[in-house]
Structure formats: structure tokens, C-alpha cells
């Protein structure tokens, strides 16, 4: 078959790959079979080959020949996810820009395993058994074009050193990370997304200089950790900060003093109590558009809420009343969520709604106010609907 370019044999019951395939192939898909063996000329000696899909098979290290891609140096995409590999395959094609090795049994990546892959842009290593000892300072150092690295769902206890400086997105969630050192992230000047959620981070485990100089870092996920306070030294240009589901008890005056560009802040499901929120805590957040304080221990709305917030969520707290003027000046507010509190209506509706807008403040715009049906009994004295109400 001297003209065959594309061969699709996915979702069958093959246990062995063909020993010989046409040299004209451009793409081969053997995904979701029962393959245990690849031969030297299955993918070798194919100069036009660009993509190989081998995920969801039963391949172990012994089933891959050392020079599996000998004479096929133009392969750009190699998908080996969901197999039984304990080692990174040897002699990978230099043209690779996307390599999937997730859902295998990798425990260690030896030095030099990626040393020839200077064109690699995406590397997927999640859901393996990688430890701190399984990576060293030179594991990734030759990957000068790498932009996407996924190390989530492994056994790391700290952020690895020697990460590529070209990274834009770094996945480190679902490990056992408790430490972010002073200089492991700072060389990554292009970093924009940092995902560290579902680890074991405490505030003292994040060095105050951990994010210094990361001017492009705009999205940081720190939720589902053990933070007892807002970490110091947050990225100065962060725009989205997710620190929900931690153990934060209060917000200090300077916790967000340098995050001038913050647009979305999620502090929900912590332990924040009203007396421990400084009245000037949000004074610098003039660009903030969304603030989520749900699931805390607030008895009153925090003072000094950012004036330009459009979405304010204070669900499932302990609010029994809203003080006069609590929402004054919030002319941009579009959505206010108060579900699951202890609010009761005891007089004219001067705070919520009316012709003059939120809190009776002139010039405010219309928006949405949520009280859910399940709160009907708690708010039984209310003379306004407890379903969605358009103000």
C-alpha cells in the first residue's frame, strides 16, 4: 500500500502491533487496544510520520524497542498515556512538540531523558508516581520551548527546581506539596498560570519571594490547601486568585496591599470572622470585579468593600442583618448572593431594592439578588419573594 497516509485502528482488540507498516504513513492511531508489543519497523523508517496515538493500551517498557522511531525523526505528536510504562521511552524524535505520558507508572525521570527535545511545547506527566527524588535540576533544563507542563497528581512534596524558563502554564495540583522555595519559580518569567490547588501548603511554606518578578503571572490557584492566612508576597499582577477551601481566619490590612490588578478573588469556605477583617483590607483593589466570601463566619458585611465589584457572594454565612449603608457607593454591583444566612425582614425595604437601587443609593444600576427556596422557612417574615428577584 504505497500511498497509504492515514491508518486508524483504534478501539479494536489488537495485542501486537503490525511488524511492518508503509513508509508513506503520516498518522497512525492504535489507541484503545490491548497492545503489549511494538516492533522496530512498526513506526521506524517513516520520514513522513507526524503523529502516533498509542494511549489506552497495555504497553510496558519491555514492549517498546530502544529505537522505536529510528528513521522517523519528524514525529511531532506522541500519545502514550494510560499504559504501564515505568520509564520515559529512549531516543524520542527530536521534532516532538507534544508528548503525553500521563496515567503511567513513572517514578523517576533520568537525566537526559528529554535532552534532545528542544522543540517540545507540551509535556503531560500527570497521574504518575513521580517524587522529589525522581526529578533533578537537569530533568527539564533542555526543554527551551516548553510552554505547558502538567505534573499534577504525583507524589511531589515541593515545587521542582530547574523548571523551563519558557513555561506559560504549570500544573502542580493534587500532589503533597508543602513548600514553594524562594527561587524555583522566579526564573520562569513567562509564567501566566500557576495551579497549586489540592496540596498541603501552609502560609509559612510559601516563601515571601516565591513570586517575585513574575510580571506575567495572572492566574493562581491555591484552593484546597491548609493556608491559615493569606500568603505574603502574592504576585503583584495577579488578576485571578483562588484561595477558597483553606483555613484562613482573617484578612489583614496589608494582605492585598500590592495586588492592584486583582479582578477576581475567591475566599469562600474558610474560617473568616467579621472581627478579623480589617476595615482597610480591600482598599487597593480598585479593579476587583468579583468577590466571593461564601461559607465563612461573617456576622456582618466587611467594611470597605471595593466600590467597583459587580458580583458579591456572601452565601452561607451568619448574617442576620445588613447595616444601613453596608452597600453604599457600590454603583457597579450587578449580582448579590445572600443565600443561606439568617436574614429577617423587620421593616421597610430600604436596604435591598427600591427605586433608588442598592441600599437606596442614587445612581446605582439594576442587578440580581438571590434568596433560594430552601431558605423560605428561615426567612419566613420576608415580604419579598425568596426565589430569584430582579431589582
Automatic annotation (TrEMBL):
Signal sequence residues: none
InterPro entries (UniProt xref): Leu-rich_rpt (IPR001611), Leu-rich_rpt_typical-subtyp (IPR003591), LRR_dom_sf (IPR032675), SLRP (IPR050333)
UniProt keyword Repeat present: yes
The entry's keywords: Leucine-rich repeat, Repeat
Claim: Manganese is one of the keywords in the record: no
Protein name (database record): Podocan
Lineage: Eukaryota, Metazoa, Chordata, Craniata, Vertebrata
Amino acid at each position: 500500500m504505497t500511498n497509504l497516509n492515514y491508518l486508524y485502528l483504534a478501539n479494536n482488540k489488537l495485542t501486537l502491533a503490525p511488524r511492518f507498516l508503509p513508509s508513506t504513513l503520516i498518522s497512525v492511531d492504535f489507541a484503545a487496544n490491548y497492545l503489549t508489543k511494538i516492533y522496530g519497523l512498526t513506526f521506524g523508517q517513516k520520514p513522513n510520520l507526524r503523529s502516533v496515538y498509542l494511549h489506552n493500551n497495555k504497553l510496558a517498557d519491555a514492549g517498546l524497542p530502544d529505537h522505536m522511531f529510528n528513521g522517523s525523526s519528524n514525529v511531532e505528536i506522541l500519545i502514550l498515556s494510560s499504559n504501564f510504562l515505568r520509564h520515559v521511552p529512549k531516543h524520542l524524535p527530536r521534532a516532538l512538540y507534544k508528548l503525553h505520558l500521563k496515567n503511567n507508572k513513572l517514578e523517576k525521570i533520568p537525566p537526559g531523558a528529554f535532552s534532545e527535545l528542544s522543540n517540545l511545547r507540551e509535556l503531560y506527566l500527570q497521574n504518575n508516581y513521580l517524587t522529589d527524588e525522581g526529578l533533578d535540576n537537569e530533568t527539564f533544563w533542555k526543554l527551551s520551548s516548553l510552554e505547558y507542563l502538567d505534573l499534577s497528581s504525583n507524589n511531589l512534596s515541593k515545587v521542582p527546581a530547574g523548571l523551563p524558563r519558557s513555561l506559560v502554564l504549570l500544573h502542580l495540583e493534587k500532589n503533597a506539596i508543602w513548600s514553594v522555595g524562594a527561587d524555583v519559580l522566579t526564573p520562569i518569567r513567562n509564567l501566566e498560570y500557576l495551579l497549586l490547588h489540592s496540596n498541603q501548603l501552609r502560609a509559612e511554606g510559601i516563601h515571601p519571594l516565591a513570586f517575585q518578578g513574575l510580571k506575567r503571572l495572572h492566574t493562581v490557584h491555591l484552593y484546597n490547601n491548609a493556608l491559615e492566612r493569606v500568603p505574603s508576597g502574592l504576585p503583584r499582577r495577579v488578576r485571578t486568585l483562588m484561595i477558597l477551601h483553606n483555613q484562613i481566619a482573617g484578612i489583614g490590612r496589608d494582605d492585598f496591599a500590592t495586588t492592584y490588578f486583582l479582578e477576581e478573588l475567591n475566599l469562600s469556605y474558610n474560617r473568616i470572622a467579621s472581627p478579623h477583617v480589617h476595615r482597610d483590607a480591600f482598599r487597593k483593589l480598585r479593579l476587583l470585579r468579583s468577590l466571593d466570601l461564601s461559607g465563612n463566619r461573617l456576622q456582618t458585611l466587611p467594611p470597605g468593600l471595593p466600590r467597583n465589584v459587580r458580583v458579591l457572594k456572601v452565601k452561607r454565612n451568619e448574617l442576620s442583618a445588613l447595616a444601613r449603608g453596608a452597600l453604599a457607593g457600590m454603583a457597579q454591583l450587578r449580582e448579590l448572593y445572600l443565600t443561606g444566612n439568617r436574614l429577617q425582614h423587620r421593616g421597610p425595604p430600604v436596604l435591598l431594592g427600591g427605586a433608588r437601587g442598592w441600599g437606596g443609593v442614587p445612581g446605582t444600576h439594576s442587578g440580581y439578588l438571590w434568596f433560594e427556596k430552601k431558605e423560605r422557612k428561615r426567612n419566613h417574615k420576608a415580604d419579598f419573594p425568596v426565589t430569584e428577584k430582579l431589582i
